[in-house]
From TrEMBL:
One of its GO terms (molecular function) is glyoxylate reductase (NADPH) activity. Keywords: Oxidoreductase. Belongs to the D-isomer specific 2-hydroxyacid dehydrogenase family. Gene3D superfamilies: NAD(P)-binding Rossmann-like Domain (3.40.50.720). This is D-glycerate dehydrogenase. Residues 109-287 form the D-isomer specific 2-hydroxyacid dehydrogenase NAD-binding domain. Residues 4-318 form the D-isomer specific 2-hydroxyacid dehydrogenase catalytic domain. One of its GO terms (cellular component) is cytosol. InterPro entries: D-isomer_2-hydroxyacid_DH, D-isomer_2_OHA_DH_cat_dom, D-isomer_DH_CS1, D-isomer_DH_NAD-bd, NAD(P)-bd_dom_sf. The keyword Aminoacyl-tRNA synthetase does not apply. It comes from Aquibacillus salsiterrae.
């Protein structure tokens, strides 16, 4: 019987449809990541691996993977996996595109709205018993309607965010390496160079994958170019941002606020400098975290593994 190893505890009922066909084992903890030693040992025996973005699958890990045919990553991003090392060993890597697009776009917009309208700050204000009166500028924030949103990375999620922005009457700019004329026609979005997007957007939203080219693409120079009233939102990967430069841009008033779902080093601790600033909203990497979407993502990973181990092409190869 072929073996599947799952690097995090997932509900038994998701595994059940595959349990007669495969010997399935999983890491017993839901909230604690697998340690590298166990991963190395389990990968040595497995034919299929279901893994997460917290688990680095690199050259060293794969060196013991003598039977492994498929790695299914429970995310659309796959920067935790050394694709070259996998390819060298003919191991197929799959991800979960499309199924998380709308959910992640919802979260992106929730982060944009809560940063602009200071929702988290307002909640703390009420909780701390500070609400004693009404005053004209109490917790006054920034408008969203009719403002300009600049989306860096007009891919699947970028387009879904653009649709939401259109509903708010926003002007929509985008930047990619290549123009998307279909999206321009369908969504009324306008292509601009990166620098122009930074200079003219009220909201700058980062939705590019993490690659050597996008690493720290938002650094001191980028923040300096933004409007002082600009709000920066990152739902892509933390490594696309120089957090030190972001912190300084915020405290020096070069930009107004930011909303972050992802960080250079995750998880962040409660003394993280960005968390100390009122104008920053921090979330624990929950972009695709709706119950329905996470369930669909798990099912897609298991189907991809089943397809490959049955000699078929996977549904969503990287
Ligand atoms: P996608 O469809 O591949 O879109 C990525 C876009 O980025 C593409 O349009 C691509 O266009 C553009 N891009 C790539 N490299 C670029 C560069 N160097 N400069 C400018 N643009 C660049 O991916 P997606 O499904 O929308 O997901 C995007 C990312 O969001 C994922 O890779 C993942 O890291 C992140 N994500 C995070 C969460 C979360 O929980 N926070 C959830 C889902 C996804 P060109 O090729 O034309 O440049």
């Amino acid at each position: 019987m072929k073996k599947i190893y799952i690097t995090r505890k997932i509900p038994e009922e998701r595994i059940q449809p595959f349990s007669e066909k495969y010997a399935i084992e999983m890491w017993p903890h839901e909230h604690q990541p697998i340690d590298q030693d166990t991963l190395n040992r389990k990968i040595a025996e497995a034919d299929g691996l279901l893994t997460l973005l917290t688990d680095p699958v690199n050259e060293e890990t794969l060196s013991s993977a003598s039977n492994l045919k498929v790695i299914a990553n429970l995310a659309v991003g796959f920067d935790n996996i050394d694709i070259t090392a996998a390819k060298k060993r003919n191991i197929i890597v799959t991800n979960t595109p499309n199924v998380l697009t709308e959910t992640t776009a919802d979260l992106t917009f929730a982060l944009l709205l809560s940063t602009a309208r200071r929702i988290v700050e307002a909640q703390k204000f009420v909780e701390e018993g500070k609400w004693e009166n009404w005053s004209p500028y109490l917790l006054a924030g920034s408008d969203i309607y009719q403002k300009t949103i600049g989306i860096v990375g007009m891919g699947r999620i970028g387009e879904a965010v653009a649709k939401r922005a259109a509903g708010f009457g926003m002007k929509i700019l985008y930047h990619n390496r290549s123009r998307k004329e279909r999206a321009e026609k369908q969504l009324g979005v306008r292509y601009v160079e990166f620098d122009e997007l930074l200079k003219t957007s009220d909201f700058v939203v980062c939705l590019v994958p993490f690659t050597p080219k996008t690493k720290r693409m938002f650094g001191a120079k980028a923040f300096h170019m933004m409007k002082q009233s600009a709000i920066f939102i990152n739902v892509s990967r933390g490594q696309n941002v120089d957090e030190h430069a972001l912190y300084h841009a915020l405290v020096n008033g070069e930009i107004k606020g930011c909303g972050l779902d992802v960080f250079e080093q995750e998880p962040i601790k409660k003394d993280h400098p960005l968390l100390q600033l009122d104008q920053v909203v921090c979330l624990p990497h929950i972009g695709s975290a709706s119950i329905a979407t996470r369930t669909t993502m798990i099912d897609l990973c298991l189907e991809n593994i089943d397809f490959v181990l049955s000699g078929l092409s996977p549904k969503t190869p990287v």
